[in-house]
Specification:
Layout lengths: L2 H6 L15 H6 L23 E5 L3 E2 L11 H14 L5 E7 L2 E6 L1 H9 L4 E7 L3 H13 L6 H14 L4 H8 L3 H9 L5 H8 L5 H7 L5 H14 L3 H9 L22 H15 L3 E5 L5 E5 L4 H11 L3
Parallel strand pairs: 2-4, 3-5
Antiparallel strand pairs: 1-5, 3-4, 6-7
Helix pairs in contact: 3-4, 3-14, 5-6, 6-8, 7-8, 10-12
Length: about 325
């Protein structure tokens, strides 16, 4: 056979589409897989191998039954969807393969929901192999590693890993990269009365305040000191001192000085401001006042797309 005839018999390779800028991972991954052939027998995509990243139709991904988060702000989701329309998906979701072209989400629920709102047909995904317990572990650990989780959310995730995944505290520490004492401190927070847990969840008090309160045996005394912390804006050091001294009344040395104190923003007003800003940005916002009228505002985000969404809101009209 001549070289020319051999060349004629060489099958042509599938052409790749060239993605443009501003399309995130989709532009990099698109065209890196082939269409199903007669070998598969239907129209669609060839299943991706485990431990690979590829584009998966959003309609082929079912929800994670072990998803730790149950509430997603619809306004924030819509804003993320608008960002995805412009920037594309930058961080892939994680899924496990259930069957031929059938997947179950492990992590990335917000990105998946926002992608559906944005009208995307496919989404970049990292395919992993996992059984039900591994699914729960990965979903909880991914949830714990989010920077904007409050202490109660972390504690509840730790508790689920201990009770539902049968992990000892030492094993749990290894899984989440924390030492045993840190895990123990978080789990102890769940012993606090519901009112105090809600106060910690809503940033009315800090983790330091809560750790001091958990050392009090009486629920009544815990609640009394909790309300005093809020009303008097007690520091963590002051609360620790009160607990060590058996919650004795303030001494003369502790009494307010005769000098007029600098006016402080009421706690209730700070919390209202935080709630207003959290609703505006669809993310947790902390307002921390400082001396001489100074302070800082912190806006949390859980992904690059989320940060871009917030920056888009901050841009002047």
């Amino acid at each position: 056979m001549s070289e020319k005839n051999e060349e004629k018999n060489i099958p042509s390779l599938p052409k790749r589409k060239v993605g443009g800028l501003g399309r995130g991972l989709n532009a990099l991954i698109e065209g890196s897989y082939e269409k199903k052939s007669d070998r598969v027998g239907s129209t669609g995509l060839v299943p991706h191998p485990v431990n690979s990243v590829g584009l998966i139709p959003v309609g082929h991904i079912e929800a994670n039954p072990y998803q730790p988060r149950t509430h997603f702000d619809q306004t924030a989701l819509q804003e993320l969807a608008e960002s995805i329309k412009i920037q594309g998906i930058i961080q892939p979701v994680t899924v496990r393969q259930m069957g031929t072209n059938s997947y179950q989400l492990i992590s990335g629920e917000r990105r998946l929901q926002a992608s559906r709102l944005a009208g995307l047909e496919t989404i970049p995904a990292y395919i992993r192999k996992a059984d039900d317990q591994q699914m729960l572990e990965m979903a909880l650990i991914e949830n714990i590693q989010r920077e904007n989780l409050n202490a109660i959310e972390i504690a509840l995730s730790y508790q689920r890993l201990v009770s539902e995944c049968n992990l000892k505290q030492e094993e749990l520490g290894d899984r989440v990269g924390k030492n045993r004492s840190t895990v123990t401190n978080y789990l102890r927070l769940l012993k606090l009365p519901p009112d105090i847990q809600i106060g910690l969840r809503d940033n009315v008090i800090s983790m330091g305040h809560a750790r001091a309160l958990v050392n009090i045996d009486s629920v009544e005394q815990q609640l009394a000191l909790f309300h005093r912390i809020v009303d008097e804006e007690l520091s963590v050091r002051k609360v620790e001192q009160l607990v060590r001294n058996g919650l004795t009344p303030p001494t003369k040395a502790d009494a307010p000085s005769a000098e007029p104190a600098e006016p402080q923003v009421p706690v209730a007003e700070l919390r209202r401001t935080e709630r207003h800003l959290s609703d505006r940005f669809g993310s947790r916002v902390q307002v921390k006042p400082g001396p001489q009228g100074r302070g800082e505002i912190k806006i949390a985000f859980d992904s690059v797309e989320d940060m871009q969404r917030i920056l888009h809101i901050l841009q002047p009209a």
